[in-house]
Amino acid sequence: MAENAIATIWLTQDAFDKLAHELAHLKDEKRSEVITRIARAREEGDLSENGGYHAAREEQGQMEARIRQLEDMLRRAEVGDPNNSDEVAPGSRVTIAYDGDEDDTDTFLLGSREVLGLDASVDTQVYSPQSPLGTAVTGARVGETVAYEAPTGATINVKILSVKPFTG
Questions:
Q1: Which of 28, 48, 79 is the last residue of a domain?
Q2: Is the domain of 97 the same as that of 157?
Q3: Could you tell me which residues are beta bridge partners of residue 107?
Q4: pLDDT by residue (tens digit) across 109-122?
Q5: Nearest-10 Cα torsion for 15, 21, 24, 25
Q6: 100, 104, 121, 129: least CB-packed within 10 angstroms?
Q7: What's the CA gap between 155 and 135, in Å, rounded?
Q8: What pTM did the predictor assign?
Q9: What angle do the packed helices 51-76 and 31-43 form, to 10 degrees?
Q10: Contacts of 4 (CB under 8 A, 6+ apart)
């Protein structure tokens, strides 16, 4: 993929709606709450030692960054139904065997933790469709073997054992 190419983000309708709702909440409610807290803290006087002011400004910066991130994700989103075929696509739960050894398997989600609605407590491997493994398996079908180049430069062969839609 070209360095300046804009990658599509694959979302279910439910994931798109959740992200759009979060964006609306941040822009409509949270933004005005933080601005009000900043204004109140400003009225207290000396800003150099005003912890409330600095905390509110930091929260504002983090919130604005999240707003930009959500806007970008939603702008690049392509909404579709969960994959219900034997072809690997974003939103799939994929089981692979390394070098055809069905005792050396790995199961992962193809997508992103955020887009799939996974928080840090969920112990599931997630690979981006743009990662070397994600690129190699995307479009492959159950039973096919594909190869990708690992970061070490080694070529790794994987056989697609199963593909299921991710249901959350």
A1: 79
A2: yes
A3: 95
A4: 887 766 555 555 55
A5: -130
A6: 121
A7: 14
A8: 0.60
A9: 160
A10: none
Residues linked to residue 158 through DSSP beta bridges, in sequence order: 98, 146
H helices of 11-168, in order, are 13-25, 31-43, 51-76, 113-116, 132-137
Contact status, residue 32 vs residue 73, Cβ threshold 8 Å: no
- Write out the two tokens for 90: 């974003």
Give residue 146's domain range.
92-165
Q: pLDDT at position 2, please?
A: 42
Bridge partners of 11, per DSSP, are 79
Q: Establish how many alpha carbons lie within 13 A of residue 44's alpha carbon, considering only the half-sphere containing its beta carbon.
A: 14
Contacts of 168 (CB under 8 A, 6+ apart): 14, 116, 117
DSSP code for 123 = -
Are 38 and 60 contacting, i.e. CB atoms less than 8 angstroms apart? yes
- Do 96 and 121 sit in the same domain of this protein? yes
